[in-house]
Amino acid sequence: MKIRLVNHTPDQQLFRFAVETTAGLEGWESHGVEPSSTESVTMDLAGNDDPVAIHGVVDDQLTSEMLFEDGGAESDEICPYVLFEYGYVDEPPSFQVHTAVDCDW
Fold first, then answer.
1. Which domain of life is it from (predicted)?
2. CATH code assigned at 20
3. Does residue 100 contact residue 63 with C-beta atoms inside 8 Å?
């Protein structure tokens, strides 16, 4: 699963996140993101289990989002990706779930 970490603040931030699959919670990952920048990461999921939710923490603030409620995850034509943003106009951290037809971003 592709995740784009977006830090809108003037300070470096540590983004921590974990994907929950039909088999349970995958391990937590941590990535430091420089001020006013974006970092793209790929999280490999174990087995053939579908992702159902993503959980994250930035600056001691928690957020969660359901994923692919129809049960469909990746296919050959459509690839899911998640924006994990923090610091946009004093908003708490948030996830935005998208799909793309181009899997090579």
1. Archaea
2. 2.60.40.4150
3. no
Residue 105 exposure: Cα atoms within 13 Å on the Cβ side: 19
In order along its 105 residues, the chain shows pLDDT tens digits of 889 999 999 999 999 999 998 889 988 999 999 999 999 999 887 777 888 899 999 999 999 999 865 544 444 455 778 899 999 877 888 888 877 766 665
Parent domain of 8: 2-100
CA pair distance 70, 91, nearest whole angstrom? 28
The Cβ of residue 34 has, within 10 Å, a number of other Cβ atoms equal to 11
Tell me how crowded residue 14 is: count the other CB atoms within 10 A of its CB: 12
Output the six-digit token pair for 19.
């994907």
